[in-house]
Write a structure and sequence with these properties.
111 residues; mainly alpha; 5 helices; 51% helix; 0% strand; elongated
Length: 111
């Protein structure tokens, strides 16, 4: 009887999970280091640095919008489409090297 009552109390106080938001990009996986490295490689021939000021303006934006922020910030001589193409090609070579962020390296998550 006591076990049954304890289970009833546990069920009554445990919230029901109704939704899960799953975001690997920059949350579970260190994708930001890839984006930073690739963008700097794209900028090197033009003599520019990919600074935190520019990166912070690009983060969380749609790809075309982020590309335009980069282009406008540094007055670059290429289009959004060029940047997106180069970024895709260069980052594709690096995705298999993406590290799991230490926050989520835990036996609790099976990692």
């Amino acid at each position: 009887r006591k076990q049954h009552d304890a289970k009833r109390v546990e069920m009554a106080t445990t919230p029901t999970i109704t939704h899960v938001i799953f975001d690997m990009d920059g949350t579970l996986l260190d994708t930001e280091s890839i984006y930073t490295k690739v963008t700097q490689e794209i900028l090197d021939p033009y003599g520019h640095k990919f600074t935190w000021d520019i990166k912070s303006k690009m983060m969380g934006r749609k790809q075309h919008d982020a590309a335009q922020i980069l282009i406008d910030s540094l007055n670059l001589p290429f289009s959004q489409e060029d940047y997106i193409k180069w970024e895709g090609e260069k980052s594709a070579e690096l995705w298999e090297l993406v590290a799991v962020l230490p926050t989520f390296c835990s036996e609790d998550f099976g990692i």
